[in-house]
Amino acid sequence: MLDAMAGHGLKRGEDGLEVYVMCEIPNNVIQIDAFAELFDGFSIGSNDLTQLTLGVDRDSEIVAFDFDERDPGMLEMLKLAVEGAKRNGRHVGICGEAPANYPEIARYLAGLGIDSISVNPSSLLRTMDVVAEAEAAAGRRNASSRAAAHGGGDVQQNRPRAMGENMRCLPIAPAASTR
Are 135 and 163 within 8 A, CB to CB? Predict the structure, then answer.
């Protein structure tokens, strides 16, 4: 793909062009260090990653009840993806229904340090509130740790920035069905 783009004059790194890759199959997570050499960032596709991690077709009446982004194995995949992207100095965001449907997943991702969350418009405000609370809590924990490590200090001075400075929550329009 990168070669095809270059053949049309679009070269990664030239004129600020960044190329991101969808992280929606388990292999993208397992091999994130190798993918980070080729791409500038990752967008976790939570629906497909959950489906392929759990081996469950979310559209099947027979097994869809087992499709759950909150599954411990799925939470570990999200953690590995975010940590791997961060370890490689790459942007990482998420699209899909998980953070919109489950505020605890948005909170979890914010705690991991994800850079952006795309959600549907109807859940935008709720997700922004959840993320702001999670970032504030993380800021308080980090500030307390820094203050303790330096023999006290002004914890208030180290408070987290306002929502939007740490992470972006982006509203997305519902995708047209391909079925």
Answer: yes
